[in-house]
Amino acid sequence: MAVDKGYMSGSSQLLVLSVLKEKPCYGYELIKTLKNQSNNVFDMQEGTLYPILHKLENEGLVCSSKQEVAGRTRKVYSVTDKGLKVLEKEKEEWKEFSSAVNQVLAFGSM
């Protein structure tokens, strides 16, 4: 099912930090991981991802380094301690938000 891209734009930072918490990734790897873990719902484009990564890096939530991956030099992103703190805060906010949405949707189906 196609999902309104507005839903993803509000949660893209949370999603990127969550993936990077599990392992450092280069951009294309991050895109593939998001797509696979979401059963193809989150099909982020490079033009969307890289501005998010640059913003997160400027805010000190992720850091990058050049690494050799499969014979190519790639920019690999990792979450920082500050990024982990922001991730935990955003996860709690998301739980509260999604719970409230589910309550309203359940009420509307009564």
Write down the secondary-structure element order: HHEHHEEH
Low-confidence residue ranges: none
Number of domains: 1
User: Mind telling me the CATH superfamily name?
Assistant: Winged helix-like DNA-binding domain superfamily/Winged helix DNA-binding domain
Largest sheet: 3 strands, antiparallel
User: Given this structure, which CATH class is correct?
Assistant: Mainly Alpha
Relative helix content: 55-70%
SS-derived structural category: alpha+beta
Strand order of the largest sheet: 1-3-2
- Kindly report the CATH topology: Arc Repressor Mutant, subunit A
Mean pLDDT: 91
Describe the structure in your own words.
A hairpin with a 2-residue loop joins strand 2 and strand 3. Helix 2 crosses helix 5. This protein has one domain: Orthogonal Bundle (Arc Repressor Mutant, subunit A). Helix content is 62%, strand content 16%. The chain is built from five helices and three strands, in the order ααβααββα. It is of the alpha+beta class and 110 residues long. The mean pLDDT is 91.
